[in-house]
Amino acid sequence: MGSVIALVAVLTVLLSGLAAGLVDDGISGLRALPVSHLAFQEGTDSTFSRSTIDTADVEAFAAVPGARAEPLGLSLVNATSSRDTNVDLALVGVVDDGFLAADLFPDGPPPAGSVVVSEGLIGEGLEVGDTIAIDRSTVTLTVAAVAPKATYGHVDMAYVSLPDWQEVARLDTEGDPLVASAVAIQGGTTSELDQVGQEIGLDVVTRSGAYAGSPGYSAETSTMSLIRAFLYLISAMILGSFFTVWTIQRRAEIGLQKALGASTGTVLRGALGQVLIVLTASTALGALVGFGLGKLIEGGEVPFSLQVGTALGSAIILIVAGTVGMLVGIRKVTTVDPIIALGAAA
Amino acid sequence: MTGLVLSEVSLSYADGDEQVHALDHVSLTVAPGELVAVSGASGSGKSSLLAVAGALRTPDSGQVLIGGTDVTAASPRQRAEVRRRDLGFIFQQSNLFEALTAKDQLLYQARIAGVDRAAAAQAAAELLAAVGLQGKADRRPGQLSGGERQRVGIARALINSPKVILADEPTSALDHNRAREIVGLLRDQAHQRQVAAVMVTHDLGILSEADRVVTLRDGRIVDAASA
User: Cβ B80–A258 below 8 Å, yes or no?
Assistant: First the structure.
C-alpha cells in the first residue's frame, strides 16, 4: 500500500509542477514587470490586444499621489528571422526613460530598430545580431541583447521601444506619442487608482488580476485545478478503500483487542497511528522522488516549474486527503464485535 | 463473594425464523480460588455462557456480577472497562497477537488497563516464569509450541490481577498430556491467586483437573458436581 501512496504522491507533485509551469508560461513576463497595477480600456477584460490607452490616461494615473504611470504596449506577433526561422513573439513596447525600461534593461534601453529577446527565443534559433522581420508589417528589428526567460500566453517576450511597437501595431499616433495597450502603474492605492479609472473610463486591475487576460490562462488554470482536485479525491477514495479492506483483514485482531478490554477509542487510535505513519512516510518518499523527477524535467520543452513549497504543499494536501479517506475506511473498526474473539458464535 | 455470579440468566437469539434459547435461567456461582469446568455438547450453550460471563453479551434477563460489579445493564464502555480491569480471557488456539513477543502480549494487556510500564514489565517477567516460560519472553507466537502459546495466554490473563478468568476451550489444540498440564497450571494459578476461573470445554479427559464440573444441555445446567 505504501508504494501506491508513494506513486500517487509522485503523480501529484509532477502535476503540481506542470500546473505551475503552465501558469509561468502564461504570465511569467507579466509577473516580472515592476508594476503594481495595470489599467485597460473599459470592458476589455485585461486583454492587451483589445485595449488602447493614450497620453491623457497615463497622465491621469501619474497624478495620483505616490504613483508612477507610463504606457505599455503588448501584442502577439509572428516574425521571420534572417536565418529563415519562424518565431512567435509577445512584443512589448516601453518608453525609453520610464521605470519599466530601467528595470528591464539595466544596460540601457534598446535603440530604435532593435529588440531585446527572452532567452527562450535563443533556444528557437535566434542569436544576437540576427534580424527579424515582423510578419504583415514593414518593421525589421535587430536582436541587440538577451533578457531572462519571460513569456506571455506561452509566447516568449521581445522588448522594443514604444515607437517601434506602435509601428508594428499600426496605431495612429498623430499628436499623441503615448498611445499603447495599457497603463503600467507603480504605487498608489487601489481605491485611488480605481476612482481615477472610473473617471476616465478605464478598468484598473492588480498585476495578478491582469493574468486572466493572458490567452488561455483561465481555462488552463481551472483545468489543472480540476485535475488536481480529482487526483486528491481519487487518492482519498483509494486510501479509503484500502483501509476498509485493511480493517476487514484485521477484524479478528481488532475483535481480540476489544475482548481484552481495549476501548474502541484505543483501538482506533492504535490503527490510525500505524496508518498515519505509513501514509506520511510513503507520501514524503513519493514527494521526494517526484521533486527529483521534476527537477530533471524542468528547463526542458515541457512547461514545468517546481519549487520546494509547491511539492511540500502537494504532499500536505495528499496527507490530509488520505487522512479523510482513511477515517472513512477505518470507521469499520467501531463495528467489530468483540464476541468474535471467542471460538464459537454466542 | 468477589468471584463470578450468574443469577437466572437467560439469553436468546434469532436463527433465521427461529428463536434459539441459548441460556435458559442459568445460575452459577464461582468462588475466588475455584476452577469450574463447563462441559456440554455443541450448541448446549457453553459459548453463550462464556459470552455473558465475559461481559461480551447482555442477557435478556437475570443478573451478572463480575468481581462484585453488576454488568447486567452496563454500557459497552462500562463492559469494556470491566473486561480490562476484572477479567482475564484465555482463548482457543491461544489467540495471541502474531506480531508481539510473549512479553509484549502481557504488556499490551497491562497497557490498555493503564498499568505503569515498569511495574507491568516486572509483573510480566514474574508471570512468564510462573507459567514455565523463562527465557522465552522475546519469542513470538510462531516460535512457541501450542502448549507454550497457551501458557502465554494464561500469563496474559493474569497480568492485571483479575477477579475472574474465563477460558474458552483452552486445550482444543493440545494432546492429552499437555492439555492436563495446561489445565493443572490454570487451576494452580487460580488457587494461588484466589481468582475465580471458568473453563468451557468439550474435552472430558481434563474435567478431573477442575474443582467442579457443570454440564449444560439446551441452555440449562443439568448436572453440577465436584470433580
Answer: yes
Report how many Cβ contacts below 8 Å link chain A to chain B.
73
User: Alpha helix (H) ranges present in B55-196?
Assistant: 76-86, 102-112, 117-130, 146-158, 176-193
Q: What is the pLDDT along chain A (346 residues), one digit of tens a residue?
A: 788 889 989 988 998 888 888 888 889 999 999 999 999 999 999 999 999 999 999 999 999 999 999 999 999 999 999 999 899 999 999 999 999 999 998 888 888 999 999 998 987 889 999 999 999 888 999 999 999 999 999 999 999 999 999 999 887 767 787 789 999 999 999 999 999 999 999 999 999 999 998 888 888 888 888 888 888 888 888 878 887 888 888 888 999 999 999 988 888 888 888 888 988 999 999 999 999 999 998 877 788 888 898 889 989 988 998 888 888 877 778 888 999 888 644 4
Picking from B22, B42, B93, the nearest residue to A346 by CB comes out as B22
> A223 and A119 in one domain?
no
Whole-angstrom Cα distance, residue B223 to residue B189?
Answer: 26
Whether B57 contacts chain A with CB within 8 A: yes
Question: Residue A341 and residue B89: Cβ atoms within 8 Å?
Answer: yes
**Beta carbons of A48 and A190 less than 8 angstroms apart:** no
Judge if ipTM > 0.95: no
H helices of chain A, in order, are 2-31, 55-62, 99-104, 119-122, 162-169, 190-200, 217-249, 251-259, 264-297, 308-330
Contacts B92 to A, Cβ<8 Å: 342-343
Specify whether A299 is located in the same domain as A230: yes
- A211 in a structural domain: no
Contact (CB<8Å) B54/A261:
no
Chain B within 8 Å of A257 (Cβ-Cβ)? yes
Q: What pTM was computed for the model?
A: 0.69
Label the pairing between strands B164-168 and B196-200. parallel
Buried b (16+ CB within 10 A) or exposed e, B115-143: beeeebbebbeebbebbebeebbebebee
Q: Which amino acid is at B63?
A: Q
- Minimal Cβ distance to B47: which of A262, A338, A342: A342
Q: Is B202 on the interface with A (CB under 8 A)?
A: no
Task: Looking at the structure, tell me whether residues A89 and A139 fall in a common domain.
Answer: yes
> Given an 8 Å threshold on Cβ–Cβ distance, is B97 in contact with A256?
yes
Q: Which of A165, A182, A206 is the last residue of a domain?
A: A206
- List the Cα angle A91/A97/A99 in 5-degree steps: 75
Query: Does residue A98 sit within a domain?
Result: yes
Place of cell 534598446: A110
The residues in B 21-50 lying below 8 A from A, measured between CB atoms, are 22, 42, 46-48, 50
Beta carbons of A263 and B80 less than 8 Å apart:
yes
Contacts with A, B 164-193, CB within 8 Å? 168-169, 172
Which residue among A173, A206, A239 closes a domain?
Answer: A206
Q: With CB atoms and an 8 Å threshold, state whether A260 touches B112.
A: yes
